[in-house]
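ok so i was messing around last nite and threw this chain in just to see what happens. nothing serious, just curious
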Amino acid sequence: MKNSGRFFENRDCEYYPCHKNIEEINCLFCYCPMYHLEHCPGNPSYKEKDGRKIKICTECTFPHQADNYDTIINILKKGV
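result:
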């Protein structure tokens, strides 16, 4: 996957590695494009604050796994 349009890893980023327990981190979706979805294929947790439900994605590695690129693109194409 190195030097692919579907994957890149920025080891010089000040936040790298942003997640533990994952060998290769795809930085292409550093900011998850599915954050706005109530039901995404990742594993977010939720927190209640000031009467609002806040999505917490700190432990989610779904967008950083190279094998999930096609799934993410298909979700974005649907515009869900």
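not much to say yet. The CA atoms of residues 53 and 80 lie 19 Å apart.
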